Request: fold
Amino acid sequence: MRQYSGYIERIDWVGEYDDDSGVVVLLSDVTIAWREGSGFGVTGGCPRVDDDVETILLCIADLVQDQVARAHVAWPWADDGGFMSVALVDGVAMWVKGDVRTRVGDLREAPALDSDYPMTSDYPFRVVASWTRRWGTGLWLGPSELPSNWSSAVAAVEHDLRCWVRKKPLPDVADHTWEVLITEFGGVKVQLRRHGLRGWSGDLMTVNPESVDLSTARATAHLADEVQGDLTGNAWIDWPSAGWDILVPTVVDGIAMWVKNRDNRPIARIGRLCEDCTEPW
Reply:
């Protein structure tokens, strides 16, 4: 319950006890509907085997919230939107957002959102409109012309994905399709999936929706940041990287730029990385 941007279908758990330290390392593998499991992972603190129940609840809730987020789903979602976080309040494990406190284990489903756009079997969220185009082409298919800010953002990121991946190559995406989705609240989500697949099942998927009216520069920097985070977090691919520093996408004087992380020095325009950056930075 209270899952946003996807539905948790299954969670597998493993607890590994270390006899020397008395610590129990908790791992979980989260499977989202219409997608494969994200793999076992561990985050947050590790409780001791003799900790009290509330401390253990805190550790488990913190662990699984992070693992669900890595699977591109927000949980648990508050009544007024946004994440709830977990904390010990007077020795009790609680879900907290603002002044709202709910004991871990006592959450109830949030009130249903009124919407003219019913849930479909293809997406784990409500979609107003969608556009698709094959990798390496310029033709978008959809109900109307795709807003130019987002078509430009996709084109820029696609161009830059062709260069400066030095530690590990990108997957072969020649047979992939871009999809741009507008959700019921005006947010934009983008994915890159194998051609012929349906639904929210891409190899690259954005996590945080952004406004359809974002400027071209900000839409481009946002998409580059989301794709970079997806590659780094889920495929362990550093991009764009010359083998050490990863460049950071941002907007400089109204232009979407790749900048050097250490000193914020602009290196290349997003969409012109291959041309502007001809040697390591």
